[in-house]
Structure formats: structure tokens, C-alpha cells
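Exercise 7 asks you to align residues with C-alpha cells for two separate proteins.
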Amino acid sequence: MSDTDLTPLMRQYREIKRGYRDAILFFRVGDFYEMFYEDAEEASRLLSIALTSRDKASANPVPLCGVPYHAATSYIAKLLKAGRTVAICDQVEDPKLAKGLVRREVVRLYTPGTLIDTELLSPAEPNFLAAVATSSRRSAQAAASPAFGLAALDLSTGEFWTMEFHGDRAATILIDELSRLEPKELLYPEEPSPGGAPWVGRLKGLRLCARSPACFDLLEARRVLQQQFGVSSLDGFGCASLTLGIQAAGAALRYLRETQPSSRLEHIRRLQVRRIGQDMHLDCATVQNLELVRPMIGGERRGEMTLLAVLDRTVTAMGSRLMRDWILKPLLSCDAINARLDAVAELKDAFQARAAIRTALRNVQDIGRLGSRLSLGVAGPRELLALKQSIAALPELRRHLSRLSAPLVRDLVRAWDDAGDLHDLIDRAIHPGAPAAWRDGGIFKDGVHPQVDELRKASKEGKNWIAGLEAQERQRTGIDSLKVRYNQVFGYYIEVTKANLSRVPDSYIRKQTLVNAERFTTPELKELEERVIGAESKVKALEQELFERLRAQVARETPRLQAIAAALALIDVLAALAETAALNRYVRPTVDEGETIRIVEGRHPVVERLEIDGGFVPNDTLLDLESNRLLILTGPNMAGKSTYLRQVALIVLMAQMGSFVPATEAKIGVVDRIFTRVGASDNLAGGQSTFMVEMIETANILNSATPRSLILLDEIGRGTSTYDGLSIAWAVAEYIHDRRHLGARTLFATHYHEMTQLANQREGVRNYRVDVQERDGDVLFLRKIVAGGADRSYGLHVAKLAGLPSPVIDRAREVLAQLEQPTATVCGESTELHARSEAEPLPRPHPLIEEVRQMDLFSMTPLDALNRLADLQRRIEQQAN
């Protein structure tokens, strides 16, 4: 159908829709948002609402569905969850004043990274829009040394920062940062050639938005940023030299302006610069393996099985978001760590002050996001009341905080802002029972504005007269069933049943005929109706104007509100950590620049909360850069090796974020990074097996760690054949231990008992095992870490506990007994096996394995060494055949 065959309304729709082809267009028609054509068909399916049609009588009826405009948010949420974008097209002029077709414009584009609606946001998580700019150079040097700029902007709070990554590992570090950030939307420059942005293929679970390279233009980015901040240079933000960072920041800000064309974005007032090394860098595998903020396996209550769930006893949304940020960004500075620990320690001991602070904080709403909504011009009267309520708690909080002496708290008190002027401004104006939307009227208190009072009086008097009209007319006409009613379509009317029509006075003017009644009006009623409705209309319009002025006046104080929100979030997190420490028997760690990690009776903060038979068994840990550099941990499955590895990492991380730790004593020499290779997983979509994923993660550790790192390795080499895996595990352990390569503090859990022999060859290696007790053929897992290596895996006992049929277990015992003999016959074939001996540094199942010891592995990169070992395994298999 051509546009000339359409009605003016549908031509208007078609014209607007052309600019938003990838979005579902909510087109305002009266009290509904309507959708047409393919939008209607898709929305009706996704929203489970009826699909009808417009112009049914025509040869080509238009598919149609709609939702009430006042309830649109819940429908928008469903469409966003389904991965769609929603464009809101509103009426931008009063239909009563319009000459012809009402003018309509798209006033907002809803995308996951640009949300500000309370109903659509998670209070405990930030909502970042991220942008990545890449180097535009195409030289061989640029390809060998890539560079990236990353910017992140949270529209709901105004937080805006940028950073850059350079060097061979720039792409990996970028992906790690995005993993921690978890942006709801990621903008990146679209590459003209296939495979032009290989790093994008490594991202998982993010909503990607390819943009034209022109959106990342440097000159335009500088102009947009300077215009936003009202400056002539970006030097004052410390980012003038961050070319790629500026490009990314400019692209993010331009995207916001495109999607929020009616918003001024005045709450975005500065651009922070972040640099690598400001906090501990955690890679994707570590964040996932330690289950810091998300569980590795979903399911009911699995969200409680994270470190965040254990530590987050905050009572405000702002505090909850900051707690998450602290967990994902442990500190590296001992001074900063100990400043936090001082505050937590004082609050832990000061029970009454802590309880009073937390009680007062419960009255505080999300000031950070309230300020942003005020600045964006979308906050309603009740949100101003929520802000007033929150500000009312500030003087009390200051009084309680003033009694504390920790430097971090004293700094807060010195910069404290009670914001009493804002509280009084809102309190004088807004009625305590104000509605959620300004359109409903009744926003302001009596006495705030004389004209509002006058119009309200006129409306009230008219309504009172109309209320008495029913009794008056019943008496005058003798019609006892006569009623005076009102609706939005017909206004005020007098309703008389048909049985009483003969009694209707001649002065009544017929207004509407019903099946069983007639509706009338009178000149007096019509005059009063116009007076009442006119007064109501005028007072609503006046209240709207006054409210917008008040909202703008408060919005000018957004920087103050952002500072108040940051202070409240900080004290909330400190008090929450103190509360957790008191309830969970945590102790203050000693954190210094030393090389020792010593934990006495350490516990896993998450696992200890579970109902475990016999309770959680605490364990000690001693790591340093001398004689306790590499701890090899052996023992059976299900005995707790992985739990022990994770608990050490979590205790170190908790200490460096400024938290007390689950132990009776802890001394933590600051680590620059924590690396974990724990658990088995694959990447089938990327064509990577479990073993390949294991080797990639191991290679990342070997190439990225430093002597100040903490490394946790669990079952390296188990994804391949026994001798292949043992060779790799042995070589990796030596590489990590030896100072000419890494010399890092490491916990190395393994089922290869031969690995314990490494302690005889390396000075810094110590053997530990998870103790077990055998009784009447059964095994009791004691979960206690003791000195020495294990010589059995007890795999058959675990298999029995798992429920394998008895014949399988019995046959396995027979095979195991034969395999453990120096010369064994299995399945009719003779197999020569070497008995293990403590005197032998390595088992010799085949002469070629001696090449492992003769290889100059230390002159190779880790990946070359692994490839060489794999080639050796192939040769062994060929000779065996």
C-alpha cells in the first residue's frame, strides 16, 4: 500500500517508523501506545496481547495491538528482556490546541544500556553502557601491538569513566575488564572486513551493538565531551593523552544523546580516568571460579552461593552496588586497605553506633538514582518526597558518625552535607499525600501559591454544590431514584429511569439515551460543570508548571546529591562489613607489603554457611617466596581440595578489599593478582574442548602472573592421557616455582601422586594432603590439610558413594589390584608397570619419557613447551602401536 492510500495518522506513523526500523515503535494515540504492521505482530506474540487490525473495512486492514500508556513500563520491560529495543513516540502538543493532526515525535529510545526507570533497573547492580574504540592503524606493528579504549557510562547515576589498554595482552585485559563490568550494552566500531574484530568473538553474554567507525571519530568525540562538560579542553580531566579512551567516551555520550533526544544529561558532569594497576586485576576465569558475584551453576537459591551474598548486608541500594564494586576491585595499596580495615574494626566494636547508623540508613532511598531522574526531568512528586525522607536522615547519621575516630570516617564527617536547604524546600512545597504522577494534581500544600488555592476553592465549592444537587432535584421532581453522576466522556449529568420520564421537568435538556434510563443536564449544571472542570484543568496545568520549576531547582543540586550518595554508600558498606564480621566471627587481617600469606584456621566464607555433617573444618595455610612457595596438595575427590584452594583466594581477596576474614588469624602480604584454574568446562561454540580451555587458561596464567601473584591450580593435565597430563603438570609446576620464570606463591592440587616427588628436587616445594580415615573398608573424609603427600585417590570409594552398581565397583577393584602390580595382566594382555619408589624422581613408563627431563623447557615459552610435550606423547603412542 502506498503512502497516498493511507490516512494522515498512518502516513505520520510510516514517516516516523522509517527512522527506527530496528525498534518496536510505541505510537501514542489517545490513552494508548499503539503498534502497527510487523511491530504489532511481534509485540502481540512477545507480550501475549490481542492482535487486531485498523481499518477493518478496507481491502488491506493494518495489523494493530496496543497497551495503556500509563502501564507501558511493564510491557517495555518484557520487550527489553526479549532482546528488543523500544522507541517511544509521544504527542508533543495538546490535542485540544492542535490544528489538524497532533504532532508526534520519538522522545526516547529504550535500550538495555540506557535505562533510568526504577521498575526496569536492578537496585543492587550498576547499569553500564560501554564503548570500545580500537586503533585505526593497519600497520604490521599495530597488529602485533593492539590498543583499545574503554568507556563506561551509567545513565542512572551519572558515573562516567574511561581507560586504555596497550600491548600484546591488551585484548585479554579488555575482555577481563568487560567481564567484571558486565555492561548491559557494548558499542564497538564495525569492521569492514570479515573477522576484523576477533576480540568481539571472545565476549560472552553481552548485548553487542556495532556502530559506524564515524561514531568513534576523535575530533567529534572531543567536541561532544567538551560541550557536555562546558570546557574548552579535556586536560582538566586528565585524559587529554588518552586518544582511544576519548573516542570511546565520545561514542558512548553520542549514543545517549541519540537515544534520549529530549534529555539534557546535565547530571553527567565529569569524566574519570582509570588506569591499570589502580586495583587488583581479576580475569574472567577467576571471577567465575571464585563465584564472586554470580554462581557458576544456576538454580534455586544458587544466587546465595556467592561471596557477594555473604558480605552484602548493606541496607541501601547505593551501598549494595558499592559492595559489588569492592569485591570485584580489591585494592593494592596497603594504606588504603588499612584505612578501610580501621573503619570496619571500629564499627565492629561499637555495636550501638553501628546499629544506630544502620537503622538511620534504612530510611535512605537511592539518592544516586533519584538525583539523576531529577536532572533528566522524569522524577515525579513522590520521588521528591523520597528525597526529602532520605535527607531527613542525614543529621542523625552525622551525629552517630561524629563519635567515631577512624580516619576514613572522620574524612566523611568533615565533608558532610546535611542538605537541610533541600529538605526544607521540598517540605514547604510538596503535599505528603502527593500522587506519583503530576498529571493527577494535588501536588502542592495549601498556601504555597495563591492562584492554586483560589482554583482549588472554586473547584471544591462547585463540587459541593453539585453534591447537594441530587437531594435538591429529588425533592423538586419527586423522583426518588434520580442520580447526579460524572464520567470523563459526558461530564456531569442527571440520570432518570424510563419509568419516571413523565416526571422530568421541561427545563431538563436530554444528553444521552440508555436502555433503561435517560441522561439530562440543566443550564445551571452545565455552568457549574464548566466552572469545576475549568478550575481543575487550570489548577493541574499550574501545578505542573510549578512542579517543573521546583524539580529543576532541586536538579541544579545534583552534584551535591551525587556526593551525598557516595558518602552514604561508603558508610553503608563499612557498617555492613562490620556487621558481617561480628555475626560470622571474622577477624581483622594484618595486611602489609611482605611476602608471607599465613592463615590460621581459615574457613570458606560461603561453604561454612551450608549445613555440613560435622560442621566446617578450618585449615591453616603458609605461603611465602622462600621455602613455602609451591604447595602441592594431594588427596581424594570430595575431600575438599577445591574448597581449600578457593577459601585461600577468597580470604586474600576479602583482606585486600578491606574486609575482615573467616579465620582466627591472618597475615596477608599484598598480591597483585589472583589466578585460578579450577574446575572443568568447555567452549563447544568456539570449538574448544575441556582440555583446550584448561590449557588456554593455564597459558594465560603463565604469561600474565608475576612473583607477587597468588596462583591456584586444580588438576592441571587431567583432560588428557595420564602420562601426557603428568608431564604437563610437572613442567607447569617447575615453571611457576622457579624464580627465573615466575617464583610465585602457588597452591597446586593434583591427583598425580608422582608430583609429590618435586619436593625432593625443589627447595620451595612443600607437600600437603587432605587427610582421610579408613574403617572397615569405608573412607571418612576428614577435610583436614596435613603435611605429606597422599598415595591413593580413593576414586572407587567416591564411585561407590555416587551409586555405581556393585558389579562395576567389584570389577574395578580387581582391575586396580592388577594394575598396581609391577607386572600385570589386564583383559588378557601383559602390561609392564614400574613400581613407584620414593627414590625415583619420576616414573618411567617408557624410555622416551626421559626426554621430558632432557628438554630445555625453560628456554621455551609455556605454549611451546606444552606443544613439545604433546609431540612427545604422540611418539610414545606411535611406538606402542
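Second protein for Exercise 7:
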Amino acid sequence: MTTTQSTTQPTAAPEQLGIGARFSIHPHCDDFVPVILGALEDAEQAGLTDGLVLETDDVSTYVGATEAPAEERLVRYLAAVVAGASRLSGGGHVVAHVLLSRGCPGERTCDLRVTSLPSPEPVSVEPTGVAAVAQWSLYPLLDGGDGDGDHMAHIEAAIAAAQRRGTAASAAHYATRLSGDVAEVLATAVDAWAQVGAQVPHVVSHLTVSVGSPSAAAAR
């Protein structure tokens, strides 16, 4: 795998690059089933599933982006579901696990053989009014010995960008703590993931997002 882009190759479309996410959401309340289903239905009714492929199994939901702006579509959908679950649970504790991936050689829709890597614009999303914190990790998967295998340089640049943005609160074990509106927290992680993906074909990012945690005051 190489990080060198050819100027003669067409830029990869979202589906060719395999841009997508897997997520699961966990409202900590007795009536969690209607909360989850209601949040998913509200996002669909708002038209936020347009340009996305959704596949749910007994572990998580796959969200594949098929149309540009792929990254923005993902953030809008995920933010709406998390914020919706928070509201439907009466502002209770909601946790979401989000795994982002782009350019995975094993992804069934991914084909990087005849394409160059896109440089998407930063995500623009409206605030949800729901405050969140997250533990965020970023993994540029650099293969080969071409001399451009310094994955930490990409990670450190992404963290610095999040600090300038004001969402990176502090370092944690194996992660960076983000805080802010849930839409801005997700946009921070997605923008960093996409920006690294303009240079590195295969990039993965992981977030654990928490809303309304009873431990929030102690963690400040």
C-alpha cells in the first residue's frame, strides 16, 4: 500500500473507497428498545439516511456512505441518532460506540486500484443542543517500507487540530478526550479521519461517546 497519489487517476467515490461506520447505541434506561427504535426512526424521517446504506445485525449497525459529501452524511446521521436517544430517554445516560473506516482492503465495496484519494471539505453540521464527551482514537494503517510510515505524525497533527478546534479536552490512556455538542464531537473525529485519509489509503477511527453520564461531574 502506498500513500503516493497519481494526478492522472480519478478521485475515489465514497463507495469505491469504502467510507462508512459501524455503531451501536446503548440508552441506560428500562425502556431502551423504544428509545433506540425511536431515535433511528426520527433520523430516517428527517431524511438523514439519504445517500447511506444501513444494515443492522445483533451486534451493531453498518452505515455505508454511497454519495458525497460522505463524511458529512455520516456525522449528520450519527449525531441525530445519539441526540435523539438522549431526548427520548429524558436526558438520561446514553453511550454510543462508533467505528469509522475508509480504504479497507478487505471491505467488499473498496477498490483503490484505479483511484486517487479524495480531500473532502470539513464537515458542517448544526449543533444538536446535546452535550457529549468522547474518548477518541485514530489509526492510520500504514503498510510497507516506503519511508512514510510515521503514523504518530498523522495522529499528533489530528490531535493538534482538535485542540485548536476546542473540542480536545485532555489525553487519556490510548485515547484523546473530546467534549462539546455531540455534533461537534463527532465532526472533530470525522474531519481528522478524513484529512488523514487524504494521504493514507486505509484509516480507522474509534469513539466511545457518552451523554448524560452520572460520572460527568467527577471527570471534569
